[in-house]
Amino acid sequence: MHHTILEGPLNCLALNRDCSQVVVAGRNVFKIFSIEDQEFQEKVNLRVGRNINLNYSASDVAWNPIQDHLLASAATNGAVVVWDLNRVSRSKQEHVFNNVHKRFVNKVVFHVHESDMLLSGSQDGYMKLFDLRKADVSSSFHGRDGVKDIQYNPSHYFTFAAALENGNIQIWDMRNTSRWERQFTAHNGPVFSLDWHTDEKMWIATAGRDRMIKQQNRVRNTHTVQTIASVAKIKWRPQRKFHISSCSLLLDFSVNVWDIRRPYVPFASFNEHKDCVTGISWKQNNPHVFFSSSKDSTLYQHMFRDATRPANDANPVGISISVHGSVAYASSDKLNSSTTPRSNSYSRLPAVWKRTPERSEQFMMVTSLLNEFEIINSAEAVEDFCMSWFIRSAREYKLSGRSMAEVCEHNAKLADSMKRHQIAQTWRMLKLLYCGKSKKAPPSPVATAINNPKTEVTKDTDAERTEKQEVKKEEKPDTSTVGHGIKNHSDFFFGDGDVDQAVYEYDSHRNMQDGQEWSLPSEAFQPRHEIKETSQPLDPLSENTKGESPSSVNESELNSKRNEQVALSAQSGIKQEILLTPPFNSHLSPWHFTTLVRDMLQSYAEKGDVQTAVTAIIVLGDRIKPHLDELHIEQWFMSYIDLLGRFEMWTRATEIIRMSGHPAVGALNQLSTTIHTHCSQCSKPLLRSGWLCDRCNGQLNVCSVCHLPVRGLYAWCQGCSHGGHLHHIRDWLKTYQHCPTGCGHLCEYT
Q1: DSSP annotation of 479
Q2: Angle CA 126–127–132, to nearest 5
Q3: DSSP notation for 450-474
Q4: How confident is the model over 652-699, as pLDDT tens digits?
Q5: What is the sign, positive or negative, of the torsion defined by CA atoms of 208, 212, 217, 219?
Q6: 474: number of Cβ within 10 Å
Q7: Where is the composition biased (Basic and acidic residues) (predicted)?
Q8: Confidence band (pLDDT; 50, 70, 90) for 583?
């Protein structure tokens, strides 16, 4: 393998008749090299002259297969240039065909058996046949769309094929310039390249933007190779019936050689180029050597001994779990043979008569062992692998039509019914976070009793009453009125909301011993004083200065006030589980839970539960979408839609696409929406119109009442398959019950 680096990117290359020279061309390069054993030697530089213009820039080049001194190039300005290497002058341009194409030319090719016949294909949809003897256009063919590639059939003198931008392949006869001989749709999108097989007369290979390489036999598609990128060029490998080489238009910079019988892995790969490959050409007398040009300004000669074998690095085992819990396991036969010991009798057999298979034969001889396992006799295991919960959730989840609270509650109950309690809790948490309203806490009984003098603070139980009566007997008569005075007079008032803020749970007092005594001051209660009306509530800490913090208050004073409150509550019979403490005016910042919800959705998606992530995004909408990555949203929606498609839940998948609100996901409903019907008489696809066949000129979809083609809504009977215009069929069946064609079927309009 050797290569050479040129001055600029290369667009094409071509070999001469005996494969001893190669010509490469680009925007700023047009040179001829001789092919040596270890290097390329430059022979001619065609980009010379006084006035170098666009005629010296080529998008394609062809070498005459009969006269070795003639070249043809397709200029980027729409001209076709013929070059004669035998010219004595410095410039080798023989003739320039100007104004034959209105747009740039994509392909030029010489006839296989006629040296004076040159064919060109342009983006304007025309193919021109040049007669070099007259230096003029002899025939013109109109393909009705941009022509990407053309090739003469080496087995048929008058036949050539054209690859069009609309995905069709046209087979032309040079003797008939008015219409193609045959046309068929090969790809979903533009066809970039085609190539006739050198040995099989009916085989033609096509490649396009849909990342497919298809082998047609002019009757049907027999083999299809799926690649990872749009295919730009393809070439059959000489002396190998099933091998074809390809290069990509974008992304993939390697040249792959495929065996069409094993389409999922390349037979060989060549990864020397650093940019997109633009041309491939094989040595006709040597199937192990080919040449390639690239946009990285390099020309390579590849040897098959330098190729990488992707199949050798592939994983020899595979495992998959079906949607119903079945497990499939596949392993290579080589792996099985290496783990299975051979018998002694087999090892003693002589290997004299055994032929070592070639690499291509070994590549096709590879087989694998496939086993399928089903889980039985374990209801719990089957339930774990079964996807019934996914199907039911997809069908019964509510995503719109109700309030968010109702939707979350419905989905939570549905998850609970399937024993998916974590998912149910998730829906309820979303309801609480986004729909929960902050309700004001109910007033405490202490505050109610203090603010309402007519209401008793507590109700004494029988035991408490007995204990109080015993205490009263021992007490003096003048102290028996203390409780009565507190009970009937309200000497403590609090501002609105102060009681709620000053609730204090006395956890520290619960650990006190029952026998602990309280030390009271000399006077159990402070003397009564006049309460002045003020706008600010009485706050035990209000005496602090503005610059002081609550922690700077005298601790002894605060403790004494707390002891007074405890003593007051003990005398008045108030339960000590709730005490009043000085309110601390703490302003807590709001809780930003959006980050937590985002992490939760990402966690579900990473675990494989894209259903929960997608449905939550749809329900939350703009509350969560701005905080998620657009790429992640697209991936989750695509994965969920793919799962729905596997379960054949097409209607639900369409609803998810419609409610996604993502442009890339919403565009799925706009792709592949055209379905071409076929002629009922000749079975030809109806590409131009749906009511007239271009081949047999027969009218299709004729109304059974007016006998005219139906170009709008077509109503038909499922019993006899006759129909017509919607309003004609409706009016007919209002009067008659039988089919208007006279077939005798009793039709019904519903």
Answers
A1: G
A2: 135
A3: HH-TTS-S----HHHHHHHHHHHHH
A4: 999 999 998 888 888 888 776 666 677 777 777 776 666 677 777 777
A5: negative
A6: 6
A7: 456-478
A8: low
